[in-house]
Amino acid sequence: MKRTSKLVGLVATAALALTACGGGGTSGTKGEAAGPGAKAVKGGTLQVLANAAFSHLDPARGFDGGVNNFYRLIYRTLTTQGAAPGADGTKIVPDLATDVGKPSDGGKTWTFTLKDGLFFETGAPITSADVKWGVERAWDPEIGIGSPYAKQLIEAPASYQGPYKSGDLPTIQTPDAKTIVFHLKKPFADFGSVVAQNTFTPVPKGQGAGNTLDSKPVASGPYKLADYKPGASLKLVRNDKWDKKTDDVRTANPDVFQWTFGLDPATIDERMIAGQGTDADAIAGTVQAASVARIQSPQLKQRTMTGINGCTTYMGLNTTKKPLDNVKVRQAINLAVNKQTVRDADGGSALAEIGTTIQPPTIAGRVDYDPYPSPDHKGDVDGARKLLTEAGFANGFTMTLDTRAQPKMQAMAVAIQQALEPLKITVKINTIDTATYYEVIGTTSQQHDAAITGWCPDWPSGATFLPPLFDGRNITPKGNTNLSQLNDPGVNAKIDEISKLTDVNAANKAYGELDKQIMELAPVVPLLYEKVLMLVGSNIGGAYLHDGFSGGIDLVSVGLKDASK
């Protein structure tokens, strides 16, 4: 579960942008001599220009679209997402395992078998004990701050604190060096997707305590760390213990990946537009709004890639605050918001599509519908006024809207403020420092009436979108993700009903219908599906946007068109 703020930091971090890609589309021509889709060759050094460094190199700690993309270069998991644009990229496929898992006991027990020929960069074989050790690290209170799914789903004593403090976790069994068995708290039909999470990375048994993997990861993928200056640079070189015959996902084209961190986003745009020297071999994050008009020439358009990033930017409405506890008031706000001006504040149509549903277009089973339509999405003030009058608030009210201390987010808040003015709704904008924003709005005692926020899936399933945002039993005093604080018995019951389905496709379809059920209650205002807009170097090939990694360029497939340059 990822909030979009993490991705904002990573856009700069790992050559990606804010949202995942509806079709993995590019404006370059695939398969020809020009454009980012042209064929990549083996060899050369691929440059990555970045604003910020990776959150963590330790797979139990990092948890955002950019670092997840990077991890696939140095780590492997039991399963992983495919390597392709569009829906093919979000299909779960075997990685270290021979298949996507065999359920038993009604879906409460899952068994995986490791492939032959798997080795760490040290030359030591990867065994089921190493996978188990890696997963157990997720329970460590200091280390296990990344993906929560292992802890949420695998049965474990309440007192368990990982392998370094508590030792063995008996609910993960390794009957032999090739077999690993997970015993879950309850059936989970999509556990084959869960084991693609970073916390299922093998770690040599007994290793990885403290901060050791943050400075020196132990590679199981095609690359290993050669040099790392935190905040400044990172270099990967080939891991000669990785065997392509065991890996149907990673192409591993470049000989070297070289990151440069700490660059100003405007400087990155200037360098990518100029494309001189080694910048011809570079990829970077999403283009800044101020640079969009400059990349419209035919020559630069050949080097651009665009698509939505798979996240939803929305305004959460706190259903415990009066008068937002009245459903008609929330519905009126949904009708009144002018989403065109919100999109303009975000950077316009080049950087965002208008959102109408909770789930973004990249989610499997998602239904495309608009529960609160208005002409050109500019808001239906008359319809909203009628609802407010029925609710007893014809004279409006005052509410406080939380937003981040970023120009774009503040501009979006002003757009909402102006859209609600004709309804006599006075919106007070409360600006919170970006570094503490989610900590503040996730603390229920500090949360105000509304907040502009966002959510990105961990894999493109409704299970990673709707329950964390709307299951009323998940409301917590701190770290709360249900910002609307919706605790509706009908929604809770439907989540339970869907969780029992053993067919993943049926579950995703049911979540698509649940999206509609939730939006009748109007606990949020879907605003935007933000876009990635990237400019790549003229010598980049094999590039496509990956729906599963917040719309970023899939690092396992990208490379150079000419490695001799």
Description:
One of its GO terms (cellular component) is periplasmic space. Keywords: Signal. This is Peptide/nickel transport system substrate-binding protein. The chain is an alpha+beta fold and about 575 residues long. It has a domain at about 55-255: D-Maltodextrin-Binding Protein, domain 2 (3-Layer(aba) Sandwich), CATH 3.40.190. It contains 17 helices and 20 strands. It has helices spanning about 5-15, 65-75, 130-135, 150-155, 165, 190-195, 210-215, 265-275, 300, 325-335, 340-345, 380-390, 405-420, 435-440, 465-470, 490-500, 505-520, and strands at about 45-50, 80, 90-95, 100-105, 110-115, 170-175, 180-185, 225-230, 235-240, 255-260, 280-285, 305-310, 310-315, 350-355, 395-405, 425-430, 450-455, 525-535, 540, 560. Helix 10 packs antiparallel against helix 12, helix 11 runs antiparallel to helix 13 (about 405-420) and helix 16 packs antiparallel against helix 17. The longest helix is centred in the C-terminal third of the chain and has 18 residues, at about 505-520. The two termini are about 40 Å apart. About 55% of the residues are buried.
